[in-house]
């Protein structure tokens, strides 16, 4: 009898552990839209099945050259522990705006950075700046992925993050690093998202050398839902501080990180150093 009880307890414990394990999916972009190129890095999708069905969705946009599956896992885990579902989106992140909107092109193309981001986010051609097709853009990719998940993963209740053929932005948080952080902020200005987290989110400039004019556009996402960080040792630290203020991020929600840099560059410290987990928790607090 004791042996039976021990085996039953072990079985229940294993079942509970299995139920508590996050669901993790790797989905090739071409699987969601046949028009997309084969061989692209897969989207990374993760969520706790036991978390309430109405949980907010955090969409992660990596920096230039980044891949979702090798992104900031500790930050991913922190978001999951705070009750978020996670999509690390695979998108065309090269060339970057900082590689295209420079030199003669920056001087010749008025509003180069905003036009670049408009095409990469929404898929609207902007005078041949980049070769991205409409279906390559961030928002169309997100919609196609959510539609695919709604069909293939009923347990995830993915349709709640769609409003017809558009994302249901009020249920979605955007987060990103470097170029991806800039994309998150660009979207949040014109769509009222649940929250926006910019980690060293780029430093677009206009032809006169000043920070790009698009940063001063009014935002439909309330200031209380914005957070932004940078490391004080980054070469562009002062510029990013100005940009975040121009975006209207509240001063208390601009995080100037200053712990010793562990690696070769300060640029990725804000998403990689576990010592900043308390900052991540602050940034992930849900606001009305």
Give a nutshell description of this structure.
It is built from eleven helices and ten strands. With 288 residues, the chain is of the alpha/beta class. Strands 1-2-4-3-7-8-9-10 form an eight-stranded mixed beta sheet, sandwiched between helices. A two-stranded antiparallel sheet has the order 5-6.
Low-pLDDT segments, ≥5 res: 1-19
How many beta-strand runs?
A: 10
Shape: globular
Strand order of the largest sheet: 1-2-4-3-7-8-9-10
The H/E string reads HEHEEHEHHHHEEEHEEHEHH
The main pleated sheet reads as: 8 strands, mixed
- Which class do the helix and strand fractions yield? alpha/beta
Q: Report the β-strand fraction as a percent range.
A: 15-25%
- Can you tell me the CATH superfamily? Alpha/Beta hydrolase fold, catalytic domain
Counted by DSSP, the helix tally is 11
Question: Strands, helices and their partners?
Answer:
Elements: H1 2-20, E1 23-27, H2 29-32, E2 43-47, E3 57-61, H3 73-81, E4 85-89, H4 97-100, H5 103-108, H6 112-122, H7 138-152, E5 162-163, E6 166-167, E7 172-177, H8 179-190, E8 195-199, E9 226-231, H9 237-247, E10 254-257, H10 269-272, H11 277-283
Parallel strand pairs: 3-4, 3-7, 7-8, 8-9, 9-10
Antiparallel strand pairs: 1-2, 2-4, 5-6
Please characterize this protein's 3D structure.
With 288 residues, the chain is an alpha/beta fold. 35% of the residues lie in helices and 16% in strands. It has one domain: Alpha/Beta hydrolase fold, catalytic domain (Rossmann fold). It contains 11 helices and 10 strands. Strand 9, helix 9 and strand 10 form a beta-alpha-beta unit. The longest helix is centred in the first third of the chain and has 19 residues. The N terminus is likely disordered.
């Amino acid at each position: 009898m004791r042996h039976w009880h021990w085996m039953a307890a072990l079985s229940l414990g294993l079942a509970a552990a299995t139920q508590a394990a996050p669901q993790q999916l790797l989905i090739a972009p071409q699987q969601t839209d046949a028009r997309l190129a084969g061989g692209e890095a897969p989207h990374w999708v993760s969520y706790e099945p036991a978390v309430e069905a109405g949980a907010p969705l955090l969409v992660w946009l990596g920096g230039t050259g980044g891949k979702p599956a090798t992104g900031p896992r500790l930050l991913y885990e922190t978001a999951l522990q705070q009750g978020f579902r996670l999509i690390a989106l695979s998108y065309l992140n090269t060339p970057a705006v900082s590689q295209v909107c420079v030199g003669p092109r920056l001087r010749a193309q008025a509003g180069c950075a905003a036009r670049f981001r408009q095409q990469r986010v929404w898929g609207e051609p902007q005078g041949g700046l980049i070769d991205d097709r409409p279906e390559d853009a961030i928002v169309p990719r997100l919609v196609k992925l959510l539609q695919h998940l709604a069909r293939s993963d009923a347990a995830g209740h993915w349709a709640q993050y769609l409003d017809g053929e558009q994302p249901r932005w009020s249920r979605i948080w955007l987060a990103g690093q470097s170029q991806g952080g800039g994309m998150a902020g660009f979207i949040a200005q014109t769509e009222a998202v649940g929250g926006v987290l910019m980690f060293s989110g780029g430093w677009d400039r206009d032809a006169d050398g000043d920070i790009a004019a698009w940063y001063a556009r009014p935002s439909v996402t309330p200031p209380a839902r914005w957070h932004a960080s940078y490391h004080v040792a980054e070469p562009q630290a002062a510029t990013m501080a100005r940009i975040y203020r121009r975006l209207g991020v509240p001063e208390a929600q601009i995080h100037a990180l200053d712990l010793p840099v562990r690696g070769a560059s300060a640029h990725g410290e804000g998403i990689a150093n576990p010592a900043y987990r308390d900052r991540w928790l602050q940034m992930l607090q849900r606001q009305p």
